[in-house]
Amino acid sequence: MNELVEFNKLEKFEELNVDSSVLYRCDSNDLEHHASLFNGLELESIQLSPGAFESSVIFAVVDRISIHVSKSMQAIEQCLKVDPDKFLFCICLCEACEETVFGVQGAGSWVYVLPPGGEAIAPTPTQCPLLLMTVECEALLENENLVPEVSNWFKKLKQDGEFVKSRRLAGRIQDDALMTLQSAKGIPPANETKTAKIIHQAMISSITAGFSLEWLERGGFAVIHRTPALDRFLKARNLLAARDFYQGSEGNHALSKLGSKRSVEQAFSEHVNMGPRSYARIVRLHNARRKLREERYFDESIGNIAAQEGFWDWSRFTAYYSKHFGELPSATRRKAMSRN
Q1: In 3-state terms, what secondary structure has residue 27?
Q2: Which helix (H) or strand (E) segment is 79 a member of?
Q3: pTM of the model
Q4: How far is CA 282 from CA 49, 77, 130, 287, in A?
Q5: What share of the chain is helix, strand, coil (3-state, %, to 5)?
Q6: What DSSP assignment string belongs to 291-317?
Q7: Which of 2, 156, 258, 340 is buried most deeply by CB count within 10 Å?
């Protein structure tokens, strides 16, 4: 078993908590701060499981490549959007995980590739370590190790990307990522630019060689296709996010067009471990939390903000909120006001 998979609880990276201009470690108790740590990505996250948020992220920015290893103590749903000049590679680092990760099963046996400007909804279970790596397009596509067929495959990726099924390729990238982070830790300030370029070139060459060898051996890539359950979940999720479907018959009618009530509920249970109504309530709680943190809502009463999101009973809203986020709504606002 390779080192990054063994790194299930981030112990392998404790030694990387150092003061470096290219390597960083951040333990965060703030969901928005956690999302801001990923270079080359726009992230919007929803906390799916209850409790005060906790996460650890270790990342290195080495020339034209960024490597992030992260783990959250809560289940989260991440809305990923890749910068227009980068590719994104994602790998689950926990082979023992039996839940769906990023909407698919078989953790540790796939590499998820998103193209420049690509977007994806990525549900991740609690305490699931992930590797997310961004690479500049030009550096990837012009590498001499990339065979033309793979270069064309990268260029033709759809906006929601592809899952390449290969435990060997996933393991190779994991091992190289660990070596890159360890090498970044030792970059001397005097040789930072030169050494970073060498590390970057070695990592890019390994990635492109890995994909090329996989293609040449198999005559193509084995890909994991999204299941009808995932498509159903994503469509239902978008409906719940776009309109007020948490009450009344209109929401039930809209969801019924996606399949039977049982099939819709199973899709949510499989991907976010809850039903659509519970999911919709969590989305509304996040909407309220976002407003509590925004300066333009500081003069708005907390009760009015709760009502705007469909929580008419103040005590019930407070109970839901404090259980899910581990703090009272007033504490969220107080901390936000102290930062402004």
Answers
A1: strand
A2: strand 76-82
A3: 0.87
A4: 9, 11, 23, 9
A5: 50, 20, 30
A6: HHHSGGGTTS-HHHHHHHTT---HHHH
A7: 258
Cα distances (angstroms) measured from residue 142 to each of 38, 155, 216: 24, 12, 18
Does residue 231 sit in helix, strand or coil?
helix
The pair of three-digit structure tokens given for residue 189, joined into one six-digit string: 């300030």
CA nearest to 57, candidates 77, 78, 42, 73 = 73
Beta bridge partners of 46: 77
Greatest Cα pair distance in the chain: 66
Residue 284: which residues within 8 A CB-CB, separation 6 or more? 246, 309, 310, 311
Tokens representing 227 are 């299941």
For residues 312-336, give the mean pLDDT.
Answer: 94
**pLDDT for residue 14:** 44
Measured distance CA(233)–CA(25) in Å, rounded: 34
Tokens of 92: 């689950």
Q: How far is the first Cα of the chain from the last one, in angstroms, to the nearest whole number?
A: 47
* CA atoms in the 13 A half-sphere facing the CB of 256: 5
Q: Label residue 175 exposed, middle or buried (CB < 10 Å: 0-12, 13-18, 19+).
A: middle
Tell me: pLDDT of 37 over 90: no
Rounded to whole angstroms, the Cα distance separating 28 from 72 reads: 9
Residue with the bigger pLDDT between 301 and 23: it is 301
Residue 217 phi, psi (nearest 5): -70, -40
Reported as a single tens digit per residue, the pLDDT across 218-260 is 999 999 988 888 888 888 888 876 655 444 455 566 676 777 8
H helix runs in 9-79, sequence order: 31-35
Count of H helices and E strands in the chain?
Answer: 13, 11
pLDDT at 148 over 80: yes
How wide is the angle at C-alpha 180 spanned by C-alphas 65 and 103, nearest 5°? Answer: 65
Q: Tell me the three state secondary structure of residue 63.
A: coil
